[in-house]
């Protein structure tokens, strides 16, 4: 029996919009998700080896833990606190304005606000592509202070313009010292679907960043928030898409020449043989998608995920995230998992500086026990491609780690080759085994 995980109450303000666009014939559409290390990404560095890219993905994973489980309790009600900028794994192309200007942003289930650099720049970081100029958009409208969308942002304030018109300003502070400050506005957002059609959504609230500084990459511009808050992309286009989206992630080492997909509307439905579903649990921060992990099995050996004091399963004890590569567990559970996996392996163990449990893997191939994640009502079976990763030539490691914060994150390697669907209205996440290279 699961018990309710204690959480702070966060007021969720829903903003409704009217949309004028054309969905695909089946009532939905799909958009490319570009892995930041694929050859199609502007972040791609041809001089890096696959293992160097992997090492950076590990570091990004470690950095992202703090955004979900901040060490300071005072920051626990601020969805954007302790975010490490530019650390997501997947990119989305979209356009804003009329006429539309193409933007490349980081797609992030751990953020809500959609923001991009904008002119005039008080202090913008160097950006390769043209910076969006709102004065050239006929559909750009600054958002007043006394609106729900402004009040829904934790880090917002009011700015008086020359005509005494109070407009909404946002301020995003990041854990590495980076920041974005600008105005909140409505404008048309256009997505290019994989069918070739352009789908436009008027009156989408976006952040127009005029003062942005830190470790942002010059090849990108801002973030596309896919979180559960009211200003995220899925929430804002939800009235037209049924508040549904899904994605199918191609495994990291095979994503060089193929893009993953993110689906909206009817195209996002996850159903059919092999589909399992688990509830989304309300947690301390409305942005994040909290699930309940009841335990993990290694082969036939089950390890229960229980609270150390009460010895019961807490609801909402793990966050599912598309931008974290590894899967993180509380230290006690991780050590149990590591010990059990090690007891079922018959390969020579190797020490590395990257991850704890590593083995010799001739030809970078490894056979290990099946690991099953037991979510509430949904058993998700993981094969070695989801649970082990090659860290150097002939060495593979268990792709799990202990979280210093004692939190838990279900990372994207564990989600690879699964169609993962989010039904935000019915509060359900679904999983279906799928060859994502063929979707």
TrEMBL record:
Highest taxon in the source lineage: Eukaryota
Ranges where the Peptidase A1 domain occurs: 90-432
Subcellular location: Secreted
Primary site of residence: secreted
Biological process annotations from GO: proteolysis
A Pfam entry, by short name: TAXi_C
Molecular functions per Gene Ontology: aspartic-type endopeptidase activity
SUPFAM superfamilies: Acid proteases (SSF50630)
Residues making up the signal peptide according to the UniProt record: 1-25
Gene Ontology CC terms, in alphabetical order: extracellular region
The name this protein goes by in its record: Peptidase A1 domain-containing protein
Species of the source: Arachis hypogaea
Lineage, highest ranks first: Eukaryota, Viridiplantae, Streptophyta, Embryophyta, Tracheophyta
């Amino acid at each position: 029996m699961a018990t309710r995980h204690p959480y702070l109450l966060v007021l969720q303000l829903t903003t409704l919009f009217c949309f004028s666009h054309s969905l695909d014939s089946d009532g939905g559409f799909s958009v490319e998700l570009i892995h930041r290390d694929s050859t199609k990404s502007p972040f791609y560095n041809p001089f890096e080896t696959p293992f160097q890219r992997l090492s950076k993905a590990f570091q990004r994973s470690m950095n992202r833990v703090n955004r979900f489980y901040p060490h300071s309790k005072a920051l626990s009600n601020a969805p954007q606190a302790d975010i490490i900028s530019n650390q997501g794994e997947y990119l989305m192309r979209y356009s804003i304005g009329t006429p539309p200007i193409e933007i490349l942003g980081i797609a992030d289930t751990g953020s809500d606000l959609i923001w991009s650099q904008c002119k005039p720049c008080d202090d913008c970081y160097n950006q390769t592509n043209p910076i969006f100029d709102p004065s050239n958009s006929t559909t750009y409208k600054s958002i007043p202070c006394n609106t729900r969308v402004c009040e829904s942002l934790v880090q917002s304030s009011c700015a008086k313009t020359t005509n005494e018109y109070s407009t909404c300003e946002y301020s995003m502070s990041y854990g590495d010292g980076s920041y974005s400050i600008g105005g909140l506005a409505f404008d048309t957002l256009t997505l290019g679907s994989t069918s070739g059609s352009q789908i436009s959504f008027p009156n989408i609230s976006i952040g127009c960043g005029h003062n942005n500084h830190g470790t942002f990459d010059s090849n990108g511009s801002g973030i596309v928030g896919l979180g559960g808050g009211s200003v995220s992309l899925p929430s804002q286009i939800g009235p037209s898409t049924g508040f549904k989206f899904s994605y199918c992630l191609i495994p990291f080492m095979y994503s060089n020449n193929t893009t993953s997909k993110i689906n909206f509307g009817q195209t996002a439905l996850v159903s059919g043989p092999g589909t399992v579903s688990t509830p989304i649990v309300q947690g301390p921060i409305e942005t994040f998608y909290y699930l309940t992990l009841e335990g993990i099995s290694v082969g036939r050996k089950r390890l229960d995920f229980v609270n150390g004091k009460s010895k019961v399963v807490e609801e909402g004890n793990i966050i599912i995230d598309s931008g974290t590569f590894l899967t993180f567990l509380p230290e006690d559970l991780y050590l149990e998992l590591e010990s059990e996996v090690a007891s079922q392996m018959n390969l020579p163990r190797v020490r590395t500086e990257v991850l704890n449990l590593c083995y010799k893997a001739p030809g970078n191939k490894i056979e290990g026990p099946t690991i099953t994640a037991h979510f509430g009502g949904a058993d998700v079976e993981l094969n070695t491609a989801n649970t082990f990763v090659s860290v150097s030539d002939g060495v593979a490691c268990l792709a799990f780690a202990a979280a210093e914060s004692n939190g838990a994150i279900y990372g994207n390697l564990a989600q690879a080759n699964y169609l993962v669907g989010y039904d935000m209205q019915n509060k359900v996440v679904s999983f279906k085994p799928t060859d994502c290279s063929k979707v």
